[in-house]
């Protein structure tokens, strides 16, 4: 395993949701509080950025080449990167509820799963303090969005829903709640989930944020406030801990040649780290990842 290296000195406020575009050898990710999307071209090392009018929390590739589904504010947009055309797709919740979208990902059947949470981003990108002990702030829900735009609320009562990924055999879906320091596993079949149980809970460093799945069925989980990545085996047991040079580790994705590089996003907001907080990092974990699912468009 190689050392952790910085591959993008972006200083994102809250970098999140990296996704790999193999054909173009490019990595996309969001800056939630920076209200933007970043793209690293692995061949040239160039980083491009695009701005949006609201926090951008999630991205997913679609079956329409060159288009991404973007979660921003409470809205889903279809975005043609090359022309910067942005087409409204779906409003997930009423703004009066005081929430925003958070993490999202496509399932093996082409649906998009996304969570909502109490909005903690001010209009200027600064953070809003939320008292997570108050029951009214557990206002988040987990939704499934079909390719046709049908919205289904799967569950409610979430604080900060994070991590959405599927096992290599497509039989298990994982997600979690950062505030509860828990990752759950569900039986997954045909776009639906059943039998929620605790996958892992209470790991002592930071709180769980985004994750990536490797070909051995292990979950690589980023630990916000925890200075590390944790690899959990399929039984939910800690397999290894990767130390990171900054504290707020937000999400990760496999990419590069043969999906053997793990890219890691971080956050500078509220961090005491001076130079590298909010940067994009990479490491060679010694195992391949699996390809992300696509949101199926018409």
Q: What report would you give on this structure?
A:
The chain is 0% helix and 51% strand. It has strands at 5-8, 15-21, 26-31, 36-41, 47-51, 56-61, 67-72, 75-80, 85-91, 99-106, 112-118, 140-145, 151-158, 161-166, 172-177, 182-189, 192-201, 207-213, 219-224, 228-232, 238-243, 249-255, 261-266, 280-283. The protein is globular, with a radius of gyration of 17 Å. The protein has a domain at 16-213: TolB, C-terminal domain (Neuraminidase). Strand 16 (182-189) and strand 17 (192-201) form a beta hairpin. The protein is mainly beta. The termini are far apart.
Brief write-up:
The protein has 298 residues and is an all-beta fold. 0% of the residues lie in helices and 51% in strands. The mean pLDDT is 95.
Secondary structure elements and pairings:
Elements: E1 5-8, E2 15-21, E3 26-31, E4 36-41, E5 47-51, E6 56-61, E7 67-72, E8 75-80, E9 85-91, E10 99-106, E11 112-118, E12 140-145, E13 151-158, E14 161-166, E15 172-177, E16 182-189, E17 192-201, E18 207-213, E19 219-224, E20 228-232, E21 238-243, E22 249-255, E23 261-266, E24 280-283
Antiparallel strand pairs: 1-24, 2-3, 3-4, 4-5, 6-7, 7-8, 8-9, 10-11, 11-12, 12-13, 14-15, 15-16, 16-17, 18-19, 19-20, 20-21, 22-23, 23-24
